[in-house]
Amino acid sequence: MEPAESAGELYVSYKPLLFSLAYRMLGSVMDAEDIVQEAFLYVNETKLDHVQNMKSYLCKLVTNRCIDRLRSASRQREVYVGPWLPEPLVAERDSESEPSLRYLQKESISTAYLLLLQQLSWTERAVFLLREVLQYEYDEIAEIVGKSSTNCRQIFHRAKRAVSGLPDPGDERQPVMPAGRREAHLSTEQTGDLIERFVQALTAGNLAQLMDVLSADAVLYSDGGGKVTAAVRPIQTAERIARFLEGIMHKLAGSLSIRFADVNGQTGLVSYTDGRISSVISFQTRHNRITGIYLVLNPDKLKHVL
């Protein structure tokens, strides 16, 4: 078999898996796509007769490239203006049949979940994702991350405790999101209905109705990255969020349009100002109320969204 043909077959078979891993590692659609492309270019140009497990080999290539990318971007994250949110993964609603989403829908990829992953070290994140999401055995993970299987087992359990919000003896890190604020599972239909009520209240300027769909302790995060106007601190409580959103709607009256979309595996919104994309909004829900609103405004994170 010719190398080019082999690479093509590998691309079809493993691209969804590798993109799923890279996106969760990085929180960036464009960086994940770049890294997966780089990995397959490398495979196409390299003799791989010695490789016995191509799936693990490709995961190792992608994981190492993700860690390199995270190291180079760490300084940028430290000086980032305002809250940092993952780059949104946007698809049309009811797009479950799309092959590229196969692995992404196996486990939650909600914005809240991705933010929880950010508290993990790079190695912890890789081990956790390979075990929890992709169901790898510890021996396979050890080969990918270059550690012993026993060490990988310990890393996984430590990472799982951190993501679950459970205390880890000797670990002083605090979870990004307290366990009590986790999403209670809502059906796709229930989530869609809740977000539709949110949009109706927002577009009608009905503060009472808007506050009715928001949890009293809801939090809104807006990521402008210093590129556009955004709240540099989280906005807390339903009343403050409602008034903040009312101000935006008043300012953009007549120029704003909103469409529903699948954002990070859940019902979300894409907004346009004068026909140009201006934001992507995702939500966290609990007990049939919206507890978190994630507003991505940074134009660099919206370039891939139509």
TrEMBL record:
**RNA polymerase sigma factor 70 region 4 type domain ranges (all copies):** 112-162
What is the protein's quaternary organization? Interacts transiently with the RNA polymerase catalytic core formed by RpoA, RpoB, RpoC and RpoZ (2 alpha, 1 beta, 1 beta' and 1 omega subunit) to form the RNA polymerase holoenzyme that can initiate transcription.
Q: What is this protein called?
A: RNA polymerase sigma-70 factor
Organism, scientific name: Paenibacillus ehimensis
Location of the RNA polymerase sigma-70 region domain: 10-75
